[in-house]
Amino acid sequence: MVFGIVYLVGMVATVVMSVLLWRQRARQGRAWPWVMAGVVAAVFWPLTLWPAVGAHWYRRGGSKRAPLIAGTSALAAVIALLAIGGLAEHDERAQPAGPQVLREPSSPPPSVATPSPVVAPGPPQDQALVLDVLDDDRVLIRVPGRDPQVVRLAGLQTPPAGECWGAEARSFAERTLRGVTVRAAFGVGWSSGRSPDPEVSLILPDGAEYSSLALQQGAAEFYPQSFLAEGLTAELVQAEATAKTAGRGLWGEGCHPPVQAAPVPAPAPAPGSSEVVLPAYYADCAQARAAGAAPLHRGDTGYTSKLDGDGDGVACE
């Protein structure tokens, strides 16, 4: 850009100089030679501008050293143009056009420290004393400096009184929580369709989470409409699955007896056949003796544990 500006200024200067020379010689000849001289000077102005200036000064009698000054100026202009051209070429080489190919450096780049993931802080925990175990999965706690407060155990649903394992579940809660100083974590979530009491996660003195412990022992079920923190939800679901697999508490045979397959009725005898079809189970031993099937051994047709009082595998002895 600098080279273009300098060249443009030189063109304008040579044309002006040609016009001045033509005005001095216009009366002595034609104008076209001076016009041609101006065009040539505009193209090759570094070599023609300063000689033209020196000639002009010399003819007007301004200085006898005008030709020397003009020649020196012309040489200086050529050297300046070469220097400007060299700088322009250097800039072009320094910034080559087109996509660049990155080469592997000879030495490894400095290691960049990987930022550690930001972990959201857990809910605040307060020391609390469990004053009493109430109904419907609630306890009464007291945080120092505050009034006693009723809170709900996060994610739990215990059996009501009178249902299977209801008394055992309450006894487990009273034995584990009443009069114990725990850490109460508020703000762990909420449960839909329950009372507005805040849900808390109670951390026992040994570090165990009470809701997880109760589920693991089968003393409660996981409330299906609980919306708790992701980590706490996963822990409670896993604890309940452990109790189901082991058949503890609510998941034992007393509350969830194993499902027995219905007996398959014997096929009806074909018409005219004299074959006697034994029933799948006899109502009592008298019926079995009347049919001539007593005693019945485990695995025989008609055997049932209801007729085997002592459980030795032989019924209606």
Question: What is this structure, in a nutshell?
Answer:
By secondary structure, the protein is of the alpha+beta class.
Provide an overview of this structure:
Helix content is 38%, strand content 14%. The chain is built from eight helices and eleven strands. The strands form four sheets. Strands 1-2-3-7-5 form a five-stranded mixed β-barrel. A two-stranded antiparallel sheet has the order 4-8. Residues 273-277 have low confidence and may be disordered.
Topology (SSEs and partners):
Blueprint: H1 2-25, H2 32-43, H3 45-59, H4 66-94, E1 125-133, E2 138-142, E3 149-153, E4 156-157, H5 166-177, E5 181-186, E6 189-191, E7 199-203, H6 210-216, E8 221-222, E9 226-228, H7 230-246, H8 285-290, E10 296-297, E11 314-315
Helix pairs in contact: 1-2, 1-3, 2-3, 3-4, 6-7
| DSSP strand content | 5-15%
Overall geometry comes to: elongated
- In this structure, how is the largest beta sheet organized? 5 strands, mixed, barrel
How many strands in all? 11
Radius of gyration: 54 Å
Q: What structural class do helix, strand and pairing data support?
A: alpha+beta
Total of DSSP H or I helical runs spanning 4+ residues? 8
Helix/strand order: HHHHEEEEHEEEHEEHHEE
Average pLDDT, rounded to a whole number, is 76
Q: What is the first-to-last residue Cα distance?
A: 120 Å
User: Roughly what percent helix?
Assistant: 25-40%
Spatial sequence of strands, sheet with the most strands: 1-2-3-7-5
Instruction: Give the low-confidence spans.
Output: 273-277
